[in-house]
């Protein structure tokens, strides 16, 4: 079934989906195959028939009845590399079957084969109606994508300096969007030079992304990558959607899931990648239903797939720069000049971490100054001393996560302690960790380095004592500023720039606690004035606001 043998080493790795063969490449029962047959049609295909090809959109779903379909990627010199072989009662596909992105791999028959072909629209209906089959397919698709990422299959090659700002930016973009890649660090990887020679590249042109077919993208922007790699879905600019959700953090994704599942035509617009600020969290341990915790990226990835399963469409790496709210449908202007229209709008743009008020900060952003603490950032500082700045849960989660692999975490806070700003379970872990040292009433005052951050100075304010350490990575998680600058006076904001909801300018209560000063526009999550800055509350607000949207769109029904 899996052409790549399941070795004893792989069996010992619980994080490798290919070791979970029965779940990643399941075999359906004959009865299940019979039920699927009612949604598709049977076809006989000759040996070597190409059933789908990398780069296509909206491919069909296949169940093998006789023969086999091999899944392959094109390797060096366009030689196919077979990843998996699906035979009797196994099925093709992975997460891109739930959206309209370009697929990552190709498939062709091996030997004369008999298959069930299920068209995309019928596949969605089948997954929704046949819930037991849908659960098997969904689990397999998620594990297959994790496998592609873990083994860098079906993706791209990223070449650049591992600590370089643009390399880290591209790496983070690919990682947070669940796109497989292989990193060749020119500072340490001996294979990098060969790639540079092969593609006639010079160090000044780095970083570069090399896609199958020898397509070379020199230091592409996130938007260029999203378009060139087919991560964005096609959207009809002339069509007015029932609801446009601006922001794909927990609140925005929850809105998308509930709106799409209740039959509303839903479009999600996200400036970077699904997950928002929560997507950068290494581990969320107090989210209901996940007793062992879940990373912010994993939670966002599952929510994104869930929304797309119900038909929500997603545009990433496109900031909304302006909203025309004087007439309906509302028009949203994107940074690339396009506009989209919607009969209602939910603003879930969240908040971003404040920046340190210290000289040379901008010079080291992305090159030693980080605003997320994920496995990618952790790999940059294994065995080193690092600094985490902040006293909230995000800072606490980062400190605990980083302490597993670094020599020491210096946790710097301006206040007297952590008890008033951080959950107790995190405070206890920090206090008991021999690798975390808490510095209260302390602030960073200077940064130094040549190409990358190399030295940090902090001051203990009560005594004025200054400390300088050779530290190359600082994780900044202080306070929050709302992402509302693009509203251009459309809505009423509070003194800090958060969106007022629930009451009008005269103090009268509105129909929904998430209604803004403009009928048909709602705000949920961290961007909303008075909201509780928690993932669970953001998800709750995103789910509840859909009732108000129904009431606005169909007032006579409600």
From TrEMBL:
Coiled-coil residues: none
One Pfam family matching this protein: cNMP_binding
Matching InterPro entries: cNMP-bd_dom, cNMP-bd_dom_sf, FAD/NAD-bd_sf, FAD/NAD-binding_dom, Ferredoxin-NADP_redctase_2, RmlC-like_jellyroll
Domain Cyclic nucleotide-binding residues, every copy: 24-144
Superkingdom to which the source organism belongs: Bacteria
Record carries keyword Metal-binding: no
Keywords, comma-separated and alphabetical: Flavoprotein, Oxidoreductase
Official protein name in the record: FAD-dependent oxidoreductase
Organism name: Pyxidicoccus parkwayensis
């Amino acid at each position: 079934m899996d052409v790549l043998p399941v070795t004893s080493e792989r069996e010992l790795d619980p994080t490798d989906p290919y070791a979970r063969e029965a779940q990643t490449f399941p075999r359906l029962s004959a009865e299940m195959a019979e039920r699927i047959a009612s949604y598709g049609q049977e076809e006989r295909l000759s040996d070597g028939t190409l059933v789908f090809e990398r780069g296509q959109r909206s491919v069909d779903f296949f169940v093998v009845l006789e023969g086999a379909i091999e899944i392959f990627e094109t390797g060096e010199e366009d030689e196919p590399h077979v990843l998996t072989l699906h035979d009797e009662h196994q099925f093709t596909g992975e997460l891109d079957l739930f959206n309209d992105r370009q697929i990552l791999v190709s498939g062709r028959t091996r030997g004369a084969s008999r298959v069930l072909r299920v068209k995309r629209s019928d596949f969605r209906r089948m997954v929704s109606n046949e819930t037991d089959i849908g659960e098997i397919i969904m689990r397999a698709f998620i594990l297959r994508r994790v496998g592609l990422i873990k083994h860098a299959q079906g993706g791209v090659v990223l070449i650049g300096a591992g600590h370089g700002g643009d390399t880290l930016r591209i790496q983070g973009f690919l990682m947070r969007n669940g796109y497989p890649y292989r990193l060749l660090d020119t500072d340490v990887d001996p294979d990098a030079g060969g790639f540079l020679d092969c593609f006639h590249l010079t160090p000044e042109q780095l970083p570069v992304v090399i896609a199958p077919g020898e397509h070379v993208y020199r230091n592409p922007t996130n938007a260029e990558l999203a378009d060139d790699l087919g991560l964005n879905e096609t959207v009809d600019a002339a069509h007015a959607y029932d609801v446009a959700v601006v922001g794909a953090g927990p609140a925005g994704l929850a809105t998308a899931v509930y709106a799409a599942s209740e039959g509303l035509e839903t479009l999600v617009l996200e400036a970077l990648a699904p997950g928002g600020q929560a997507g950068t969290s290494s581990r969320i341990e107090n989210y209901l239903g996940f007793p062992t915790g879940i990373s912010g990226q994993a939670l966002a990835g599952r929510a994104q797939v869930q929304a797309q399963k119900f038909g929500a469409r997603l545009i990433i790496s496109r900031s909304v720069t302006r909203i025309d709210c004087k007439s309906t449908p509302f028009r949203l202007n994107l940074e690339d000049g396009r506009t989209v229209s919607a009969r209602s709008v939910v603003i879930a743009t969240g908040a971003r971490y404040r920046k340190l008020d210290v000289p040379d900060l901008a010079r080291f952003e992305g090159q030693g100054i980080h605003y997320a603490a994920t496995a990618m950032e952790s790999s940059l500082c294994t065995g080193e001393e690092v600094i985490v700045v902040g006293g909230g849960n995000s800072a606490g989660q980062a400190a605990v996560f980083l302490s597993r692999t670094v020599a020491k975490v210096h946790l710097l806070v301006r206040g007297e302690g952590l008890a008033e700003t951080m959950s107790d379970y995190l405070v206890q872990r920090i206090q008991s960790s021999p690798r975390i040292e808490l510095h209260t009433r302390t602030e960073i005052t200077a940064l130094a380095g040549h190409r990358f951050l190399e030295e940090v100075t902090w001051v203990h304010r009560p005594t004025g004592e200054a400390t300088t350490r050779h530290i190359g990575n600082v994780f900044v998680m202080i306070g929050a500023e709302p992402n509302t600058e693009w509203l251009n006076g459309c809505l009423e904001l509070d003194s800090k720039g958060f969106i007022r909801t629930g009451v009008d300018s005269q103090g009268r209560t509105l129909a929904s606690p998430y209604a803004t000063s403009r009928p048909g526009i709602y705000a949920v999550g961290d961007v909303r004035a008075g909201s509780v800055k928690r993932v669970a509350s953001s998800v709750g607000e995103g789910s509840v606001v859909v009732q108000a949207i129904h009431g606005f769109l169909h007032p006579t029904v409600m």
